[in-house]
Give the backbone structure.
Amino acid sequence: MDDNRLGIYNESVRSLMRSNNIAKVDYGSFQLRNVCRSFLHGQDGKTAVKRLLALPQTDKGDALAIGNATEAERLAGFQRSLYKCTKLYEGARLTQNDQDEISALPSVLRYRAVLNSLRNAKTFDGAETLAALSDAASGPLFGALSSLLSSKVDYTELVNAYGKEQIDALRSLTIPLVLCRMGDDCGPGGTVTEQLCWENGICGDYVDGAIFANLRDRGLDTVAYNRFVTNVHQALLTRDTSIFRKQKPTK
């Protein structure tokens, strides 16, 4: 693990959010909030991990997103995550003054326009939405893509392959898998790697390998799932909008 490297850009959150590059703005303002919960929640690792271990698994589908890491392994992942994220945030969470200072920057306004266009899209046929999708994929804008993967992608293929009870877990795993293939911080010591370890109990040097190994351990035939993840990744790269579910027309 390169303890001295700060994420994929090797810059602090405040530096990223002041950048002229909207991919850096996205990473600093959105994605790092997803993968630095160890720091942002302000809780000690032992309490956080014990709380997660105490959560009930309501059905067998939930188990697909939970690994077999021990409490000690998860706590170690928390400490590694906390160490890196504390450096990314320079030891202090963003204040309202920080937010106000960057809120009117042109790059921030442009990023928010892209994010809102994708979040509010009913179809992906319009020129504005296609342009926003192109921005998100080419950035890549990990936060914007995370939102798309969570709420807009059509998961019917996985429902047909694995059943409805598995979909929430598989959807939650699809997000980091696709983002990792887009270049997120998913290798040894990466922010995503450590988040997955301490929060989900899925630990390994690489997110992709750890998730698929855990799914196989849970008895899942991963061939169809790997094909789905690969197809979604390729569709984003080629701006193929067929992966998005069709929205029902409003009356």
